[in-house]
Amino acid sequence: MKKVYADPTTALAGLLKNDMMVMCGGFGLCGIPDELIEAVRESGVKGLTIVSNNAGIDGVGLGKLLDTRQVSKMISSYVGENKEFARQYLGGELEIEFNPQGTLAERIRAGGAGIPAFFTKTGVGTKVAEGKEVREFDGEHFVMERGLFADLALIHAHTGDTEGNLRYRKTARNFNPMMATAATMTVAQVEHLVKPGEIDADDIHTPGIFVKRIIHVPGREKRIEQRTVRKRAEAAPAAAGGGQI
């Protein structure tokens, strides 16, 4: 089956519809499928439920979909970098389902593994547990969380072959591998597209069976969410006598 598509719009053709659930990989701006997000924005679909660790920053990544009011609900664990997100939430325009980060990761992993629900100690006795079943195991209380399975997963990988096998790079691995397994349709953008066999079998993080469509995005801009710098330390004075060690 041909998996490589010419561009993001073509790769998403026939997949997008109003009110669907979309998983979007990345952490902040690291490992986000920005080209695919842009194609979703251009499609004009509305009422989206987005599963993502966060919503990027204003005007970048998922922030673009907030600007165009295409998102009705976010299932996330952190949203502190996006002012438009905060404005819509506080104004009652956006529904948010907050999750502890580990719980969100496990909900996605469970969905990909076909597990409908699981119990965790995280959130017991807090607002996170309100309205959810709490059960006792071995003298301790656990809250039940539901697995997540989306209509569509949009992910980013460093390297992919034409059969859909993917390899992620460093922290850009984050939520991408588990999301690739937890949707009816997974579309990946890859920085380096190679032939089958060029990714060593031991280095494949997502098997191609999970990936249905691929686009090649070489030379993409990699933005930094927050740049923190400090003044360079003054050089230490040379040792007296100029001796060498």
UniProtKB/TrEMBL annotation:
<dbReference type="InterPro" id="IPR004165">
    <property type="entry name" value="CoA_trans_fam_I"/>
</dbReference>
<dbReference type="InterPro" id="IPR037171">
    <property type="entry name" value="NagB/RpiA_transferase-like"/>
</dbReference>
<protein>
    <submittedName>
        <fullName>Succinyl-CoA:3-ketoacid coenzyme A transferase subunit A</fullName>
    </submittedName>
</protein>
<dbReference type="InterPro" id="IPR012792">
    <property type="entry name" value="3-oxoacid_CoA-transf_A"/>
</dbReference>
<dbReference type="Pfam" id="PF01144">
    <property type="entry name" value="CoA_trans"/>
</dbReference>
<dbReference type="GO" id="GO:0016740">
    <property type="term" value="F:transferase activity"/>
</dbReference>
<keyword id="KW-0808">Transferase</keyword>
<feature type="region of interest" description="Disordered">
    <location>
        <begin position="226"/>
        <end position="245"/>
    </location>
</feature>
